[in-house]
Amino acid sequence: MTHSPLATAARFAGLIFVGIFSGFLVAVLVLETSLRDYDGRVYAQVRQVELDSLDTLASATLIPAILATVLLIVAVRRSRGPALWLPVAALALMLVVLVVTLTINLPINGDQNDWDVTAPPSDWAEVRDDWQSAHVVRVVAAVGAFALLLVAAVRRPAAAAAPPRPADPVSAGRR
């Protein structure tokens, strides 16, 4: 594992921001799942409350998470094996989150923000299902990215995993 100041800072920042972002997405998934039993008026109203500030929280955590992971990759770019590919794989998963967010979730958010909460559109349940399906992809990718960064932070390189033990002078003399 690379222990340069840049790698250490990027590893820490990546874990913090990806962890917060992943937890946030899981919490939204729990809320969205619980809303499935309610009618369109309740769903539309809660979605508009969610959209008031949660997009800001998502941006405030996802963008620094991606940047910190890029910095970590730069810091460990000369490494081989898991020290490099774990953060690269985590970055790839975060980019999946970003692409799904930009192409599916944000356009739906924009539409939902304009809904009349007293009379949601007739296809509100289909729109909800599309948003929630895309959100599940984001949750899985974000939690996967966090897990990869966590493994990268705690793993020990094979060579350093079991340092040789010094010879015991008492035992050596008995041979």
TrEMBL record:
It comes from the Bacteria. Keywords: Membrane, Transmembrane, Transmembrane helix. The chain crosses the membrane at residues 12-31, 57-76, 83-108, 136-154. This is Anthrone oxygenase family protein. It comes from Streptomyces atriruber.
